[in-house]
Amino acid sequence: MVAVKRVLDYTARVRVKSDKTGVDLTNVKMSMNPFCEIAVEEAIRVREAKGTDEVVAVSIGPRQAADTLRTALAMGADRALHVHTDAEVQPLAVAKLLAAVARQEQPQLVLLGKQAIDDDSNQTGQMLAGLLGWPQATFASRLELDAAAGTALVTREVDGGLETLRVTLPAVVTSDLRLNEPRYATLPNIMKAKKKLLAATSPEELGVDVAPRLQTLSVEEPAKRKGGVMVASAAELVDKLRNEAKVI
Ligand code: AMP
């Protein structure tokens, strides 16, 4: 099972709403969260290596989240489940919904992105593992599944090096940037994806309360960058750092 989120495209210019309640999403390009693309790619590779027979993509969100699921299907996922809601869903609510889906689907592995690039929460995978009581391996840069042994070997990028964990399946793994390079959906696969099953459900059907637990007080744009200055020598640079910027 792989969780995919529809987010503001990483190339889009982010505009904060004038009332500072959030990011303005009107008429901006939306795409699959890049870390979710990596998670989908990894799930497909697991199936191609015969580690599983089926990849199920799940997305939670408004009607357009179905487009993101079609992309996952075009990349190679076998079927999809759209948890339809127009409500704001925070990471805890997403984790509860994914936990409810996981209890129904009973996957051996749930793959997620390490974070969604819109809110940068980096919470969902961790909370999902907690709710299910499953092992977790976050920030994976390498995954080797041993389905017969019921384990996975996961290499994680940690400060100053790599850590390798063996987790017992079923487990939750979140993808880091270097796990793989996601494939592009080819035109024939985009056509084929239209025939794949995309089922729909809702938080009510899954019996999950998605009420927000966090309140966003204010969203602000970073301060505009001031122009830089050229210095003539290293001595002048040191002088400015010491006496103007007062950072050394
Ligand atoms: P976050 O904790 O919000 O940074 O998100 C981490 C990961 O959780 C994402 O890369 C997705 O795999 C998953 N996720 C978060 N929100 C959603 C959503 N609305 N639908 C599906 N998956 C989600």
Description:
This protein has 248 residues and is α/β, with parallel strands linked by helices. The protein has one domain: 3-Layer(aba) Sandwich (Rossmann fold). It has helices at 34-48, 65-75, 91-105, 124-132, 187-193, 203-206, 234-243; strands at residues 2-3, 6-8, 30-32, 56-61, 79-84, 109-113, 136-146, 151-158, 161-168, 171-175, 198-201. Strand 4, helix 2 and strand 5 form a beta-alpha-beta unit. Helix 2 (65-75) packs across helix 5 (187-193) and helix 3 crosses helix 4. The radius of gyration is 21 Å and the shape is globular. The chain starts with a strand and ends in a 5-residue tail after the last helix. The mean pLDDT is 95. The structure holds adenosine monophosphate (AMP). The site of adenosine monophosphate (AMP) has 23 residues, from helix 1, strand 4, helix 3, strand 6 and helix 4. Heterodimer of an alpha and a beta subunit.
Write a concise keyword list for the protein shown above.
single chain, 248 residues, alpha/beta, Rossmann fold, four-stranded parallel beta sheet, 7 helices, globular, binds adenosine monophosphate
Approximately how much beta-strand content do the residues carry?
15-25%
**CATH homologous superfamily placement:** HUPs
Query: What is the chain-wise order of helices and strands?
Result: EEEHEHEHEHEEEEHEHH
Mean pLDDT metric: 95
Radius of gyration: 21 Å
Q: Compute the number of strand runs.
A: 11
Total number of domains: 1
Q: What is the CATH topology assignment?
A: Rossmann fold
Q: Could you state the oligomeric state of the chains shown?
A: single chain
CATH architecture: 3-Layer(aba) Sandwich
Helix fraction, binned, reads 25-40%
Overall 3D form:
globular
Global structural class: alpha/beta
Are any ligands bound, and if so which?
A: adenosine monophosphate
- How many helices? 7
The unreliable regions are: none
> Sheet bearing the most strands, described?
5 strands, mixed
Distance between the termini: 51 Å
CATH class reads: Alpha Beta
Strand sequence of the main sheet, in spatial order? Answer: 6-10-7-8-9
GO molecular function: electron transfer activity
Subcellular location: Mitochondrion matrix
Protein name: Electron transfer flavoprotein subunit beta
GO biological process, one term: amino acid catabolic process
